Amino acid sequence: MEGTSEAKKTTGNGTRKRAGIILLIILAGVTLLGARMWLQSKTHIKTDNAFIEAHIHSVSARVPGTVTKVTVRDNQLVKQGELLVELDQADYQAQVSYAAAQLAMAGNETSGEYAQVEGAKASVNQAKARLDQAELDLQRGNALFKKEVISKEQLDRLATARRVADSQLRETEEAQRRAQAVVGLSGKGGNEARLAQRRAQLEQASLNLSYTRLYAPADGFITRKSVEPGNNLQAGQPLMALVALEDPWVTANYKESQLTHVRPGQGVEFKVDAYPGLVFKGKVDSIMAGTGAAFSLLPPENATGNYVKVVQRIPVKIVIDQSSDPQHLLRVGMSVEPTILTRRSIGSILSDLNPF
Questions:
Q1: pLDDT by residue (tens digit) across 98-116?
Q2: CA separation (Å) from 237 to 112, 231, 240, 242?
Q3: What is the rounded CA–CA span in Å between residue 140 and residue 135?
Q4: Residue 348 and residue 262 in contact, taking contact as beta carbons nearer than 8 Å
Q5: How much is the pTM?
């Protein structure tokens, strides 16, 4: 009986030892797993508040007109310089022809103005002659009046004639100055200015004619097309948007407490909800100069009322490695879960725990 009890005690001790060893192994595994997860949280900065963005070009009309041709459809891939929309060119071609005719006539507009100047000069000379004659008549009249040959009334008429001749001379001189001013605008320097004005009008008309054809500003996909043949457009009216997917990026809104060790140039891995299992790569390009709340339409007024601290988020721009997306699967607005690889060493992480 004693042997049986001792065997049972030995068996019980062995079971407890094995259970203790298993428990220690489990505790060690949990500890290692927890330590690994804690270290990874310090070196792998994650967020699910991130989205794909890209350059979006708004295509709009620069001149009013009627649409005659639309060469694209929604979601079509187009190349830079490809024709998108064409407007009716008849009115603008007429403006070009009119401006060209005005330019051709500008060099021949001075002959009539020079003739007016010559006529004004002749009128001035004639007025001077009448004034000279009136002064001579007045001098003779004064001499005859002193000899009592003519009456006072006749002398007054001669004086009035002299004043009238003087006024007529001033009037003709003013007319001559006006004619010369016009010729000054169409003379040697002025004629060049007028020709330059006509050339500028022709260039503007030619530009307006060129604006009747709208071309793709970049490679990309057509979206939000709202134009059809026959539509009457106004200048500045948006017609469609062109999304360039050649150079997309990720805007990740990280908590401010996560950005302590984030720097431009650090590697990034991210997943997209639309393509589970695929891992895309990129790198940190820049960190925004302010929080999202600071640049919102209605920023918070923290200086008024009761203040409640809220952890702010700061947008981080992540450029995408194009080699990880050769088929351009990513689209604007897709949800992204990026992970920034800070590459911190264990020593650097443990040094943060040192209270001294």
A1: 999 988 877 666 556 667 7
A2: 46, 11, 10, 15
A3: 9
A4: no
A5: 0.65
